[in-house]
């Protein structure tokens, strides 16, 4: 803890560059200075009470700041980075904060062609893994195009460019205009997704086409997500294309059709499973590129730990492979759907993922 907090006094003494920095120092500067003095007294006297007092003070500050951060929904560049307004005139003056766990920032840039390009700026996350997932999605899309049944039914995965900027941050490009499931349900005051799709369609033909796109893309992403083990599919991360209503990394079981999961959902689910099984060797070759060394933290681990992780990973991969390969396609799909819709499983989910 002491090592982590060591650079803090220098940052406090540095002249504030923005209005928000000055407000932060006015609110918490004295408390942070007092906490640092307790740490210094502990280092000089080794009296445990000083360290305990510093810990309590820091925890109170942390709780207060965390509550304040959770209430932030936008960042105005005028207050957080005034120089950026001067250098980049085509940026939006306010940055929207997405209310998910990592709280990514949604930024909009207008290009010289007059079009608006939207990006999600994500921090505290290694986006090189996301980039690899997009590559795998591209490979699966090629497999789906080479199969007669899936190509005829237009089974594809809608992807978006991933641009890693550093080891722990990067940009996600939002190509198509999309809305999160959370925003849609909030806007329509709790109406389920079936009613939302109906209200957004100008005719029954458009509604039927959009519903089919939603169901098929949901089935494709569900099966591919099962193979990859995709998680974090809560309502703020699940998106719908405004034009086609195709799913962009989504896990939502509403508004499929009158037959529920036994109609146009189950059919593409089984087709995609067949295609993935037929190309299992190619998929395994790509998945083998997922290495713990991609993260800077894992590179610091001792060799024995890496060997242990590798052994555990191989066992898990073998278990998954044998589980998916021991059943025929229909049986495996039925088992996966039962697990995904099981109340016993859903009740254990984090409430922020809105399993209800």
TrEMBL record:
GO terms for biological process: negative regulation of macroautophagy; TORC1 signaling. Residues 316-328 have a biased composition (Polar residues). Pfam families: FATC (PF02260), FRB_dom (PF08771), PI3_PI4_kinase (PF00454). Keywords: ATP-binding, Kinase, Nucleotide-binding, Transferase. SUPFAM superfamilies: FKBP12-rapamycin-binding domain of FKBP-rapamycin-associated protein (FRAP) (SSF47212), Protein kinase-like (PK-like) (SSF56112). PROSITE patterns: FATC, PI3_4_KINASE_1, PI3_4_KINASE_3. One of its GO terms (cellular component) is TORC2 complex. Residues 302-312 have a biased composition (Basic and acidic residues). This is non-specific serine/threonine protein kinase.
């Amino acid at each position: 803890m002491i090592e982590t907090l060591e650079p803090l006094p220098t940052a406090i003494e540095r002249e504030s560059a923005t209005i928000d920095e000055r407000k932060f120092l006015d609110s918490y500067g004295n408390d942070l200075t007092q906490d640092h003095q307790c740490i210094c007294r502990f280092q000089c006297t080794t009296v445990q009470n000083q360290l305990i007092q510093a810990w309590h003070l820091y925890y109170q500050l942390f709780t207060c700041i965390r509550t304040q951060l959770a209430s932030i929904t936008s960042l105005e560049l005028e207050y957080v980075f005034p120089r950026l307004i001067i250098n980049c005139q085509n940026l939006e003056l306010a940055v929207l904060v997405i209310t998910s766990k990592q709280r990514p920032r949604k930024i909009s840039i207008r290009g010289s062609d007059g079009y608006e390009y939207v990006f999600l700026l994500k921090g505290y996350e290694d986006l090189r893994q996301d980039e690899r997932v997009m590559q795998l999605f591209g490979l699966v899309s090629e497999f789906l195009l080479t199969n007669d049944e899936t190509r005829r039914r237009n089974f594809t995965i809608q992807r978006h460019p991933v641009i890693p900027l550093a080891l722990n941050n990067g940009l996600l490009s939002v190509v198509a205009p999309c809305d999160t499931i959370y925003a849609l349900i909030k806007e329509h005051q709790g109406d389920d997704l079936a009613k939302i799709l109906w209200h957004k369609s100008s005719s029954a033909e458009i509604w039927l086409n959009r519903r089919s796109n939603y169901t098929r893309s949901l089935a494709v992403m569900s099966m591919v997500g099962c193979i990859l083990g995709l998680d974090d599919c809560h309502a703020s991360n699940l998106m719908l294309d405004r034009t086609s209503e195709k799913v962009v990394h989504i896990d939502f079981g509403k508004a499929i059709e009158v037959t529920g999961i036994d109609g146009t959902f189950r059919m593409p689910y089984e087709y995609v499973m067949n295609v993935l099984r037929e190309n299992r060797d190619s998929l395994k070759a790509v998945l083998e590129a997922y290495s713990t060394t991609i993260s800077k933290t894992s590179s610091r681990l001792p060799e024995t730990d890496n060997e242990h992780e590798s052994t555990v990973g191989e066992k898990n991969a073998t278990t998954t492979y044998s589980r998916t390969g021991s059943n025929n396609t229909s049986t495996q799909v039925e088992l996966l759907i039962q697990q995904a819709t099981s109340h016993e499983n859903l009740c254990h989910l984090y409430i922020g993922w809105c399993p209800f």
